[in-house]
Design goal:
The structure is a single chain. By secondary structure, the chain is α/β, with parallel strands linked by helices. It is built from 15 helices and seven strands. The protein folds into three domains: 107 residues, ATPase, nucleotide binding domain (Nucleotidyltransferase, domain 5); 123 residues; 114 residues, no CATH class. The strands form two sheets. A five-stranded mixed beta sheet has the order 3-2-1-4-5, with helices on both faces. It has a two-stranded antiparallel ribbon with strand order 6-7. Helix 1 crosses helix 2. The protein starts with 7 loop residues before the first strand and ends in an 8-residue tail after the last helix.
């Protein structure tokens, strides 16, 4: 293959060291010289590595994405004037089993990169968007930890014979929390604890159910466990509130793009912050089409065909942060009357009917795919979302009055 870059370097990144393969023109005409060096991953050493590459005349550098270990290497290189520093998906340059070493990994990257055989590199966010990404991801992990703690609280109540979750809509609600606090403080009479019920819960049938649900075998050990769970939940609640307050001014830097995204049903502050952190305010600059963005987020059907037979079209496992947010936005969007709700109902019928949970999951993934493509379009055009109406499909399939088919 024809060499596109004369002086290139490829880096195989690890936690404690990096292998750097450098390829430059050789002493004789038409030859190429390859050197493999090793550096520690202390930031000062990485800066010296970058200077050594520039001293050797290297203009283009490529490395595989290795999670957080890649970032110090990338930023040390971008401090100098390389023409291109590319980070690629490791799957695009995977070695054959039994023929893999760190030095061979770096040389193989060189072979592919110098001839332009690697696809476009990964999207590296700007420092301000990186702040949004880190905080949005940490918020998601904190919410997940809070959810796990609530599940542990429910498990403790179940073990104590307290059947609160089937009677109340939310175990951490004001009324339910007051009932659990009463149990912790020593009250065991279900009828007395049920008096903490509020508003609609205070009807005769609900009060009777609460009285029975709160009568169990609640011991001092269960009280201790519930106290620990409630305290942890309060800590997570405060942490989520602090994170929201920290993220808001960072998102405000992109108020125009955030405003456009919020015109979409299901896109609230949390989803918008997650989108800006994961994809950015201008996805069309990194992804030529909405379909490529959907493929990157693994929200499009996969292709697995052999012998002219399709063996499944499941979505991939990528998009660990943006994909759940778009699924969450899709569930909110289908509750709003409009085209998306109509599309969801059509898809559910197509995939097996409303009683089929698998049909609903497939349909909601398709709605998340649609939301992603719409968000791509409105950010590219700068025009807010305008719903086509819940009768969109009816109008499209029915001929106009006076027209025969």
């Amino acid at each position: 293959m024809r060499v596109l870059y004369d002086r290139v370097a490829a880096i195989d990144v690890h936690k404690d060291m990096v292998k750097v393969a450098i390829r430059v023109p050789g002493a004789k005409r038409g030859t190429r010289k390859t050197d493999v060096l090793e550096f520690r991953t202390f930031y000062g050493v990485l800066q010296e590595m970058a200077r050594e590459l520039r001293r050797r005349g290297v203009t283009h550098v490529v490395m595989e994405a290795s999670g957080v270990c890649t970032e110090p290497v990338y930023y040390a290189l971008t401090e100098l004037d390389f023409e291109e520093v590319m980070v690629i998906n490791p799957a695009h340059a995977k070695a054959l089993k039994g023929h893999k070493t760190d030095a061979k990994d770096a040389v193989r990257l060189l072979d592919l990169y110098e001839c332009g055989a690697l696809p476009r590199g990964s999207c590296i966010p700007s420092p301000d968007l990186k702040e949004v990404r880190d905080l949005a991801r940490y918020r998601m992990k904190t919410v997940q930890a809070r959810t796990s703690e609530i599940q542990r609280l429910q498990k403790t109540l179940e073990m104590a014979g307290i059947k609160l979750s089937p009677v109340v809509s939310e175990v951490t609600g004001v009324a339910a929390t007051a009932m659990i606090e009463g149990l912790i403080s020593g009250e065991r009479r279900g009828a007395v604890l049920a008096e903490n019920a509020h508003s609609r819960m205070r009807n005769a049938g609900k009060m009777a159910d609460l009285s029975m649900a709160l009568a169990g075998r609640f011991t001092d050990h269960h009280a201790l466990m519930c106290r620990l769970h409630l305290d942890r939940i309060k800590i997570f609640d405060a942490a989520v509130g602090d994170l929201d307050a920290t993220i808001a001014p960072l998102v405000a830097r992109y108020s125009r793009e955030a405003g456009l995204l919020k015109t979409l049903p299901g896109f609230g502050d949390v989803v918008v912050a997650g989108w800006l952190g994961a994809i950015g305010p201008a996805p069309h600059q990194h992804f030529a089409t909405a379909d490529r963005l959907a493929s990157w987020a693994t929200l499009c059907p996969g292709n697995y065909k052999s012998a002219a037979k399709s063996k499944g079209g499941r979505t991939g496992d990528g998009g660990a942060y943006i994909k759940p947010l778009l699924i969450q936005a899709a569930w909110a969007a289908v509750r709003v009357p409009g085209r998306l709700q109509a599309r969801f109902r059509r898809l559910v019928r197509k995939f097996g009917g409303p009683r089929n949970k698998g049909a609903q999951k497939r349909a909601i993934t398709a709605i998340a795919h649609t939301l992603l493509k719409i968000a791509y379009s409105i950010l590219k055009t700068g025009k807010p979302y305008q719903d086509l109406g819940d009768d969109f499909y009816t109008r499209r399939e029915s001929p106009p009055p006076g027209r025969t088919t």
